[in-house]
Structures are given as structure tokens and as C-alpha cells.
Amino acid sequence: MPNWAYILIFLFIAYLLVSVLLYFLQDYLMFKPEKLPEDFQFYYENQITEEYNVETRDGAIINGLRFKAKNPKGIVFYLKGNSKSIKGWGKFAVDFTRLGYDVLMVDYRGFGKSTGRRTQKAIKRDMQVVYNKIMEKVEEKYIILYGRSLGSGFAAKLASMNNPRMLILDAPYYSLRHVAKKYIPFMPLSLLLKFPMPTYKWLKYVQCPVHIIHGTDDHLIPYKSSIKLSKIKPEQTTLYTVIGGGHKNLNSFESYHKMLHDIITSKPEKRKSDTLGNETEHSTSKPYA
How far does the chain reach from its first CA to its final CA, in angstroms? Predict the structure, then answer.
């Protein structure tokens, strides 16, 4: 057998090995969870919180925190990124409570106190279960979905299946397959990825206003992904650009807080379902029972 044939065989075996490793190690590469003991006590200075657990149909426990605002105007369901737990992410709740909105944050399976095996399907189902729990106490027109980084895809999926007041995407990806392709373009990602997360597909079915915030210097999830997302349904989407903003530091920019204030305090727009059939009146009553 000629030498070039041995080289080809070696390269083929190496390619298969890398593919197998990528398939089985992607959960480790993609998620950076922080585990918390069951008796861990959450505390945030000057924040009133309420902890709760939701049990899913497969027996998993989804742990979450509700940050309470005084005389709340509604609630923000905040879907966080791929690292740590709500112990660390809770510091961002003040961005919304000071604007008069409660904030609900949950840990995905395997993060914090949450249990269960992580899959894309399971997390999507979990978030819908939590959303349903919110709607037991809050009218849907008072719910704002906020997805940050990894959570932007899950938030888009939730919005496509429900009808919240608005959807806010912070540093979103077009799809995780597109993000991965930037780093390993030679791999068959459509076959290997367990979390393809096609945000662009889900956005096509979103009926509420969509607000996208992204920094121009984001080197993890490129700014151009938000440009592409904003063109899917341009009539109901607004793109907000943080000049010089990276992937993890938007909160440190004054312009980000100005954008968030303008978005959150904007006059509620009629969602498409509000103009179909019997028109829904926007009540001035408090959103909580």
C-alpha cells in the first residue's frame, strides 16, 4: 500500500475520533454549571427575593428566584447564559426591579439546585412549564421575555409558542451551529450538535415586538448575527447597538442601560393576537392576583 494511502487512512481515523469526542464532550464544552447545595441561602443586598422549585413531568426540579419590585408593573422572565448559577446572575435583576418589574430567574438542569439530564428538548419543555406557572398569577400581556446569550435561543422559542408583551434578546446567536462553524468549519455540525438552537427559525413565529441588543466588539457571538436576526421580521424588530460592547460587559455601558430603560418603559404595543377576533383591552389593573 502506498504511503499516501496510509496518510489518508490516518486522517480519516483522526477525523472520526475528533467527531466522536466532539459529540460526547460537547455538553462539557458548552455548559459551565455551578452546583449549589440544597440548603444554600440566596442573598442580595437591597433585593427582596422568593425561592421556589418547579417539578417537571420527568421528575426533574427546576430551581428559581423571583426578585420583587415595589408595586410591580409586570414580570421579566430572564433566561441566563451557559455558565455559573443564578447565585451570580442575580446581580442583574436590579436592572429591571428599579424600573418597576419583578424578575424571575431559573437555573437550567444541572445548574445551581436544579436537577435532571440536560437536553435541548428537556430545557425547552422546562421553560414552558415555568412560563405556565407565571401565567397562573400574571396576565400574559405583563410578561417580558429576556434571553441572554445561550438563553436568547430558549427565549425566542418560548416567544414563538406564547404571546408575551415583548421579547428582548441580549447578544443572541443566529443558531449555535453557526457559532460553532466559526471555530470548527470542517466538522459535520448538523449531525453532531445536540444543541443546534436555531433561533432564526423560531423568530419567524414570534408575534410580539422583538428588541435585540448587541455589542459591536462581541468576539464570541458576532454582532452580525443580530443584524441577520433583525431582518427576519423587520416590521416588528428593533436592533440596538452598543458601540464597543463585548459579550460579557454590556452591563457596564451607560448606553445599554439607556436602551433597556427605553425598551422596558415603552408603551405596550398591541400584539397580533390582540387584533384577531375579539380585541383585548389593555387593563390598568395590577398584574398580580
Answer: 78
Q: Tell me the per-residue pLDDT of 156-165, one tens digit each, with 9 for 90 and over.
A: 999 999 999 9
Q: What does the alpha-carbon distance between residue 162 and residue 282 come to, in Å, rounded to a whole number?
A: 17
| Shared domain check, 150 and 23 | no
Q: Are residues 17 and 133 in the same domain?
A: no
How many other CB atoms are found less than 10 A from the CB of residue 213? 25
d(CA 244, CA 26): 30
| Same domain membership, residue 171 and residue 80 | yes
Separation between Cα atoms, residue 276 and residue 11, nearest integer Å: 59
Per-residue pLDDT tens digits for 95-115: 999 999 999 999 999 999 999
Structural domain of 23 = 1-30
Of 264, 257, 263, 221, nearest to 103 by C-alpha is: 264
In percent, the amount of the chain with pLDDT more than 90 equals: 75
pTM of the model: 0.89
Judgement on whether residues 11 and 59 belong to the same structural domain of the protein: no
- The number of domains in the chain is 2
Cα–Cα distance for residue pair 64/112, rounded to 1 Å: 9
CB 109 within 8 A of CB 123: yes
Do 178 and 217 reside in the same domain of the chain? yes
Helices (H) and strands (E) in the chain, counts: 10, 10
